[in-house]
Amino acid sequence: MNQGDLSGEYGRWKSGPYAKTCARFPERKERFEGSSGIEVKPLYTPLDVEQVDYVNDLGFPGEYPYNRGVQPTMYRGRFWTMRQYAGFATAEESNRRYKYLLEQGQTGLSVAFDLPTQIGYDSDHELSAGEVGKVGVAIDSLADMETLFDGIPLDKVSTSMTINAPASMLLAMYIAVAEKQGVFANKLNGTIQNDILKEYAARGTYIFPPKPSMRLITNIFEYCSTAVPRWNTISISGYHIREAGATAVQEVAFTLADGIAYVKAAVDAGLDVDDFGPRLSFFFNAHNDLLEEVAKFRAARRLWARIMRDRFGAKDPKSMQLRFHTQTAGCTLTAQQPDNNIVRVTLQALAAVLGGTQSLHTNSRDEALALPSQDSVRIALRTQQIIAYESGVADTIDPLAVSYYIEALTDEIERAAADYIRRIDEIGGAPAAIERGFIQAEIEESAYRYQMEIESGDRTIVGLNDFQIEEDRPSGLLKVDPAVGDLQCRKLAQLRAERDNAAVEASLAALEHAASGSDNLMPYILDAVRAYATLGEMCGVLRGVFGEYKPTVAY
Amino acid sequence: MDWQEIVSRALARDIRAVSRLISIVEDRRSGFENAYAAIYPHTGRAHVIGITGPPGSGKSTLVDKMAAEYRGRGKTVGIVAVDPTSPFTGGALLGDRLRMQRHSLDDGVFIRSMGTRGHLGGVSRATSGVVDVLDAAGYDYVLIETVGVGQSEVEIASLADTVALVQVPGLGDDIQVIKAGVMEIGDVFVVNKKDRPGVERVVAEIRMALDLAGNASGRVRAYSGHHGPTAASAAGAVATTEVTPWRPPILQTMAESGEGVAEVCDMCDVHMCRLTEDGTLVERRLRRAKSETMQIASDLIWRGLADDPRTLEAAEGLARKVAQREMDPYVAGRSLRELIVN
Amino acid sequence: MDEGRKIRVLVAKPGLDGHDRGAKVVARALRDAGMEVIYTGLRQTPEQIVAAAIQEDVDVVAMSILSGAHNYLFPRVMQLLRERGVDDVLVVGGGIIPDEDIPGLKECGIAEVFTPGASTADTVKFIRENIKR
Fold first, then answer.
1. Do residues C70 and C16 touch, judged by C-beta distance below 8 A?
2. pTM for this structure?
3. Which residue of A has its CA nearest to C76?
4. Which residues of A touch C113 (CB under 8 A)?
5. Average pLDDT, chain A
6. Omega prior to A65 cis, within 30 of 0
7. Quick one: which of C50, C60, C77 has its CA closest to C125?
8. Residues from chain A contacting residue C20 (CB–CB below 8 Å)
9. Subunit contact A551:B58, Cβ cutoff 8 A
10. How many Å apart are CA B114 and CA B24, to the nearest integer?
11. CB-CB contact of A284 with A238 (8 Å)
12. Shortest Cα distance from C116 to chain B (angstroms)?
């Protein structure tokens, strides 16, 4: 049957059996849409993918434009890294949890830090009161980092650290801990999130203003390209942007726009795109609409490949490969009937795997209630293992490709995201768009619309606005011991008493001096870290030189 | 607390009392007229500065930095931040405070946010009331921040002794500057975010518009934020040209870093000196008092009438005739007035 | 009720938590319900929140927190309000707050806690029915 015939046949079906059935039994909704407002048609046929050129638009895994995957064998060679975000309260407890997870088969570590650490305050700072150890581990100095990784061979694991504004310092601490284990920096594997733009736009743990923050980021790129070459120096993140309420299209658009800004900053600072390009990585959300998410990941890969090759002139294929970590969408989980969350996470994890993620974190069922309990975390890990070992979806590469719907949707998402990027370019790039509040306003608008859909009943959330039950309060939730704050303060006092304070002073003075100039700050930070300067002390010095970021956009 | 206690505490700058008094006056709660009468004799001391400009021009940041600057000079500052009320819902998102929250723990700074609608007598009446409370409470400066894109905002700005108009390059709003009524009320022009491309063009456009408006008897001096005159030298210049009208200076700032803000404060002070010395201040305040008095009288008259059922009935009847094209609205209006007067 | 008098709400983010999606959605919903909403922004200390609440003479203080630090920060805000003699403000909270912490928070004066899944309509209704005037 040729396309002309198909068009006729489709028309026949649509106005015939389909229309007849609709007349008798109307469809559930007037219009079906994905998260981004893209209409979902009843049926997709070859007519929807007429413009898709297999060789140029899809290609092969491990080859430009990487639509089907960044690596030729994908999960047939090796499963994605199962990397569960964890860390809370003290370094000792976190160390125990990491060892537990490694024993249970997790293959990479992911460190969560508490808010004072993420914002560069010591545990005894006034603003840290009540926050120490709550959302992650408190790290005040190299001493805490040594405890965190005690007995964990850093040349054998890969560690992802969710740290942004003070990423340089936490990386320096990691390098220093490895040194003490006798492991050279060039053997270290891991990632630092280090994505400050999304902090301004969606997550809120910024410290310094944009310009000096970009300087720190490019310093890290430059330093690691020679000293820590296996390290992923940035995880350009869409996860939080999505959590803040963005749609799938916006998630791709704003993340890649941020990526463009980082590449541009590094190139403007004199680096060659292929020197750091291979080490850029991304971090996406895996949301509810399974098929839209798969299309989203594929669209992002293709769009980034095009951007790196055509816009930045990258030559190294590795620079064009969008490698990403995924986390299932925390914002979709409900406090009501929490076991349902296991099902949600399963579907979201499946989307990430079908979308070709390099590593994955699955949320625990008690996500909307508290930090996860040990049992909940184990189930979340098992979810990944069952998908990997029992479901068969990892046995062939990019299995949903050439589905008419998936390819049509991939194209549409890529087109819509590229359109957003063009608008952001017109404003002057992601930093300018954030300064103007453009990105924040788009996100807020989507967030508000989503909430109103739930409240009006247009959007059903099972257990929340439909299928509710009377339930008891859940038990067994994790509680962070409030004494953690005191413990951490005592440790700090002890540290300050025992370390060589003259060496600390000297290293901080050198850091301050370098910050006012244009040197790469990593060596100075390493010196201060090795002398056991605290995170608050180092950030305090930089706050003095760089100033603090003052958000100016409310609505 | 009854209104007397609130008033006496507010006059002593008790924050809670000032705040409650503002609410009483803004909302016209019962007792407000007495309270207002009690505080009014204490007004007239503050230097009221209106800061207005399009969204995105950095007004709030500028106001935040000006407050810091004045505080550094040992002065106290009241700030009234006006944001639009939604005409559909009657609600408002008042987000200016966010940029100034660092002052919230400083007793020498009082920040109050208000919306533009739902005020009897209009927003400028309500804002005027709020300004008067802060003035009476003893704040040296009262800064009014509004979005300068509508007529009511122009009215609010004209409550001020000194009006600072803020523009930014590159918003495509250069034409904003020329909008009717806006140019005439500007005493100080501020081009913010001066690191953006297009700043010279904005300055030139303002200068041209000022020339056209005849504000400068042919010449306007533009002061750059870097090497502007000191307050002293400018005041000196003023003294020798007493009969020349005020030439609005055009200042350039980077409000975010604070660059140029001191000069803006200086120019506002210079402007106030000038107003006081050459009698313009007295003139302006007289004009404003007259317009306020007449406006209030007119409001009262109208409200009295609009509530009278006889008027309403007559108006209904006339309206029907107008709607059916039996009578035109002017004839109807005149008839109604005849009925009322007699 | 006095003519034209709006309900004024201070929406605040105490502590270091940077997630403001919920706060902004609630702020907008309150605006759509005809209220005047003053948003303080992130990283507010209890002192800053109370100072703003007093200056703005709000009817409601609504605090959003997802970091688990509510048991320290919320009572501190209530204590400061009491110390300043402010007893006519309705204080509510929202975010990630375990059910078992809610009785303790209510005891120290938080009128209601809106946890994940609560609708903005519920929040609006609660405010309208419970403001102290």
1. no
2. 0.88
3. A130
4. none
5. 93
6. yes
7. C60
8. 204, 244
9. no
10. 13
11. yes
12. 23
Q: Domain with B157 in it: what CATH number?
A: 3.40.50.300
Which structural domain, as residue segments, surrounds residue B153? 43-278
Closest CA to A408 of A48, A23, A29: A48
- Answer yes or no: do B27 and C32 touch at CB < 8 A: no
The shortest CB-CB distance from B16 to any of C5, C38, C54 is to C54
Q: Among A283, A137, A265, which Cα is nearest to A203's?
A: A283
Tokens encoding C106: 């209510």
Six-digit token string for A425: 């370019």
User: What are the beta bridge partners of residue B81?
Assistant: B113, B145
Contact A392, A398 (CB under 8 A): no
Q: Which chain B residues have a beta carbon less than 8 Å from that of A555? A: 93, 95
Helix (H) or strand (E) holding B79: strand B77-83
Contact yes or no for B58 and A555 at CB 8 A: no
Instruction: Quick: pLDDT tens for A499-536.
Output: 999 999 999 999 999 999 999 999 999 999 999 999 99
Q: Rounded distance, CA C87 to CA C109, Å?
A: 10
Q: How far apart are CA B298 and CA C4, in angstroms?
A: 20
What is the CB neighbour count within 10 angstroms for residue A122? 24
CATH number given to C8-128:
3.40.50.280
**Chain A residue with Cα closest to B101:** A550
Return d(Cα A496, Cα C74) in angstroms, integer. 32
Is the Cβ pair C40, B97 closer than 8 Å? yes
Which positions in chain B touch C2 (Cβ < 8 Å)? 27-30
Separation CA B169–CA B189 (nearest Å): 13
Q: Give the CATH number of domain A54-77+152-371+397-456; options: 3.30.70.260, 3.30.70.1620, 3.40.630.10, 3.20.20.240.
A: 3.20.20.240
Q: What is the pLDDT of residue B302?
A: 80
Q: How far is the C-alpha of A34 from the C-alpha of A409, rounded, in Å? A: 10
Sequence length of chain C is 133
| Helix (H) / strand (E) containing B78 | strand B77-83
Residue of B184, B183, B190, B182 lying closest to B268 (CA atoms): B190
Closest CA to A384 of A367, A359, A401, A366: A359
Enter the tokens of residue A3. Answer: 């396309």
* Measured distance CA(A174)–CA(A190) in Å, rounded: 10
Give the length of chain B.
342
Whether residue B190 is found in the same domain as residue B220: yes
The reply to whether ipTM tops 0.85 is yes
Q: Which two tokens stand for residue B183?
A: 């140019």
In chain A, which residues have their Cβ closer than 8 Å to the Cβ of C73?
130
Q: What is the pLDDT of residue B218?
A: 30
Over residues A404-458, the pLDDT tens digits come to: 999 999 999 999 999 999 999 999 999 999 988 899 999 999 999 999 999 999 8
* Domains of chain A by residue range: 54-77+152-371+397-456, 488-546
Residue C124 contacts residue C96 (beta carbons within 8 Å):
no
Torsion of the alpha carbons at A249, A254, A260 and A265, rounded to the nearest 10: 180
User: Nearest Cα to A330, choosing from C120, C19, C41?
Assistant: C19
Q: Is the pLDDT of residue B236 over 60?
A: no
- Are residue B34 and residue B54 in the same domain, yes or no? no
Do A3 and A45 form a contact (C-beta atoms < 8 A)?
no
Report the candidate in A79, A10, A1 with the shortest Cα–Cα distance to residue A384.
A79
